[in-house]
Design goal:
Layout: H1 4-15, H2 19-31, H3 49-61, H4 68-76, E1 79-80, H5 95-99, H6 103-112, H7 114-117, E2 129-139, E3 143-153, E4 156-165, E5 177-182, H8 183-193
Antiparallel strand pairs: 1-4, 2-3, 2-5, 3-4
Helix pairs in contact: 1-2, 1-8, 2-3, 3-4, 3-6
Length: 197
């Protein structure tokens, strides 16, 4: 398991923003209590999938470090719009994702899906696994969706879309902002958070 600086390093390598931006958002989310904290250095807390999910939502759902904790709080309480039993058929590997009730829990499940995030077999051909992941965070009205396309076999493809809504006042800015987080971010953060998984 990684510590928070390692997650920031992984994001800096793939995100394109300066380290100071990602560092500041991570610090704000941690100081608000959404990422566990202990000592510094060798005794620092090892990040869990839920800690990583809070970082993802804070970084990609906010307009910056100033409102990142508020965004994580609002989206952490965002509930699925349809009941968990509404999706009867789906690959076993997606079971934890399909049973998750809140957005933050669902994002944590996506981080844990490691081995199916990079579906290539030994000869380089597509293997069963997730062919596509897209997390969309919408503001100011705090709606989110997760779209997954899972290839069970060559002719058996599942496409599932989960929708979440949070309560609360709309966020500034008053215009619609939608941020998409795609598969490479989840794969990178899985490898950083759960390197042996």
């Amino acid at each position: 398991m990684a510590r928070l600086p390692a997650l920031v390093d992984a994001l800096v390598a793939i995100d394109g923003r300066e380290r100071v931006v990602i560092d500041n958002v991570a610090r704000a989310v941690r100081e608000a209590g959404f990422i566990q904290t202990t000592k510094r250095g060798r005794g620092a807390a090892e990040m869990t999938a839920h800690d990583t999910a809070a970082l993802i939502v804070g970084l990609y759902g906010s307009a910056g470090m100033g409102d990142a904790p508020r965004v994580v709080e609002a989206f952490s309480e965002a509930k699925r719009k349809h009941p968990a039993g509404a999706i009867k058929d789906g690959p076993t590997a997606l079971g934890p994702l399909l049973r998750s009730r809140t957005l933050l829990d669902a994002v944590a499940r996506l981080v844990e899906l490691g081995p199916v995030l990079d579906p290539v077999d030994r000869i380089g051909a597509p293997a069963p696994g997730l062919a596509h992941i897209q997390l969309t965070l919408r503001r100011p009205h705090l709606h989110a969706s997760i779209k997954v396309v899972f290839r069970q076999a060559e002719a058996q493809v599942y496409e599932i879309e989960l929708h979440y809504a949070a309560r609360g006042a709309p966020f500034a800015p008053p215009y619609e902002v939608a941020t998409e987080v795609r598969q490479p971010i989840f794969l990178t953060l899985h490898k950083a958070t759960l390197p042996s998984g």
